[in-house]
Task: inverse folding
């Protein structure tokens, strides 16, 4: 199994969710996050004083999938989250040792 | 006694009282989330402390019969408001025996009380995030006693109103300050500058981002201030008459123009018109029109408001150039706005307004201008020097400033054992993280969340 983590623009989250659902992903974990990449935040001005705001609001989507689906899921997210502008985010994949469903005790693929 | 006048002044007193909670919101939204409660409590506690002193001896010092050269009212004359109670039996038995013009003295006591309160509350904007609460209460009491009450006597105590002999600015200098450009705004602004110098800069001033944590409440506060300000200015007519109406419209006109003035300045200088600029512009316009609202035409009020907002929008940057941490721009808005309004009377006054004087630009020469300048300068100098003395005295004895560790952790938690917001919630807490610098400002927030969880 693989954990696919995507950090995306908040306003693209709804499109990503719909695309993942259409692909057959039945659940995911979503958190509001903040961070920065190449775009290095932005500047805000209050009463003429400029502030470099280094952290930009993002949404982090986490999905655990079967090994064979990982590449496709990455593709689905990338396609649906893309605007082509700087700050679109990142998607990465890491291996998962085990999964257990709390309610039933099912394990691994059966628990996805 | 006139019942219409009395009803109007009592209503205005309530309107002006609302300005102080409005100011608490205006200031509270501008600080970081770790300091919002303390910021609001400095305003709220000003109501408590100054209201008590006003009843005990404040009114007497301001409006008791003059004890020398127009500088001070007799502190004992209305001690505990004695001598102002009593009804005469006519008018269904409730005709007040003690009158100020056409209203009961007690209505005047109420109306002037809320002026004293907000003047003290205004000062707190210059010392955000870093003052201990107890010393602030002590400062509020001492400052009201030695600075506001006497200055109110200078400016607001007219001869033969409450007492036979009043203050020197109102009766001898004849400077026009209708509702408190000198007594309230220059006074609070100069005190704010002095106190910012006494307490020193916040940890991370000009290094860490110290941006407003909640602009919607800043705008709500500005709206409440504007609403209450109609009572402040139009109520100062002390009568429900044509002057009150004229003053009301001038207050509206100047403020509207001032919002445009501040926004235009920002758009040209910074590229964007901001909500904080709109709220600040409104307040700057209100400050400037306060002394001038009975002396200008409506068009003159538009000009004054616009000019004041442009100058204030430029003046708020001075603290970075000179390195004093007037955190919420008490100097840039109230001192500068108060000066523009008070001096502006000397230029823009029109004899067709109810104050009945022509300023320089209306062919009246410099006669009114120099009177305005002396009135403004006297209050500025007195307030600045006295505040330095009071501030240093408190600093050197019981201490005024929070320790560095407490300041970084957040004055709300350290001084009040409270935090304004719950950072644990998934969505509600996000604002605390979004945009916060990865260094200092986020650290106390995380710590506050942990403390909250333990409790």
Result:
């Amino acid at each position: 199994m693989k954990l696919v983590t995507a950090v995306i623009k908040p306003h693209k989250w709804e499109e990503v969710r719909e695309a993942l659902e259409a692909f057959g992903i039945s659940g995911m974990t979503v958190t509001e996050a903040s961070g920065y990449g190449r775009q290095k935040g932005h500047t805000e001005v209050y009463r003429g004083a400029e502030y470099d705001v280094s952290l930009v609001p993002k949404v982090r989507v986490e999905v655990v999938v079967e090994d064979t689906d990982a590449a496709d899921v990455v593709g689905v997210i990338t396609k649906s989250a893309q605007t082509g502008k700087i700050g679109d985010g990142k998607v990465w994949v890491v291996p998962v040792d085990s999964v257990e469903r709390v309610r039933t005790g099912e394990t691994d693929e059966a628990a996805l | 006694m006139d019942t219409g006048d009395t009803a109007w002044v009592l209503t205005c007193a309530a309107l002006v009282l609302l300005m102080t909670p409005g100011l608490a919101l205006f200031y509270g939204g501008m600080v970081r989330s770790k300091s919002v409660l303390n910021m609001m409590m400095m305003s709220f506690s000003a109501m408590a402390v100054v209201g008590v002193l006003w009843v005990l001896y404040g009114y007497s010092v301001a409006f008791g019969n003059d004890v020398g050269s127009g500088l001070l009212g007799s502190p004992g004359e209305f001690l505990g408001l004695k001598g102002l109670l009593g009804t005469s039996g006519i008018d269904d038995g409730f005709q007040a025996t003690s009158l100020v013009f056409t209203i009961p003295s007690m209505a005047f006591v109420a109306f002037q009380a809320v002026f004293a309160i907000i003047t003290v509350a205004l000062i707190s904007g210059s010392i955000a995030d870093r003052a201990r609460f107890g010393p602030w209460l002590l400062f509020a009491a001492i400052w009201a006693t030695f600075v506001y009450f006497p200055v109110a006597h200078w400016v607001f105590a007219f001869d033969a109103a409450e007492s036979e002999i009043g203050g020197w600015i109102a009766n001898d200098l004849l400077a026009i300050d209708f509702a408190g450009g000198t007594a309230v705004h220059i006074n609070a602004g100069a005190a704010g500058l002095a106190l910012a110098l006494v307490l020193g800069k916040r940890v991370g001033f000009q290094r860490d981002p110290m941006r407003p944590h909640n602009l919607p409440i800043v705008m709500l506060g500005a709206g409440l201030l504007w609403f209450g300000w109609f009572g402040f200015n139009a109520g100062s007519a002390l009568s429900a008459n044509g002057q009150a109406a004229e003053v009301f419209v001038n207050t509206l006109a100047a403020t509207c123009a001032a919002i445009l003035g501040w926004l235009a300045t920002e758009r040209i200088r910074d590229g964007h018109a901001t909500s904080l600029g709109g709220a600040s512009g409104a307040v700057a316009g209100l400050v400037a029109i306060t002394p001038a609202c009975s002396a200008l035409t409506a068009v003159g009020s538009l000009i004054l408001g616009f000019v004041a907002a442009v100058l204030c929008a430029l003046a708020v940057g001075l603290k970075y150039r000179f390195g004093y941490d007037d955190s919420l721009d008490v100097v840039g808005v109230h001192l500068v706005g108060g000066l523009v309004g008070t001096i502006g009377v000397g230029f823009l006054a029109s004899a067709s307004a109810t104050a009945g004087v022509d300023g320089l630009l209306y062919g009246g020469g410099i006669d009114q201008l120099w009177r305005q300048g002396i009135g403004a300068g006297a209050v500025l100098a007195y307030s600045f020097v006295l505040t330095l003395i009071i501030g240093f005295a408190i600093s050197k004895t019981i201490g005024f400033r929070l320790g560095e560790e407490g300041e970084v952790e957040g004055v709300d938690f350290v001084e009040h054992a409270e935090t304004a917001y719950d950072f644990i919630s998934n969505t509600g807490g996000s604002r605390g993280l979004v945009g916060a610098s990865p260094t200092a400002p986020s650290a106390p927030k995380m710590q506050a969340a942990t403390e909250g969880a333990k409790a």
Notes: DSSP finds 17 helices and two strands in chain B.
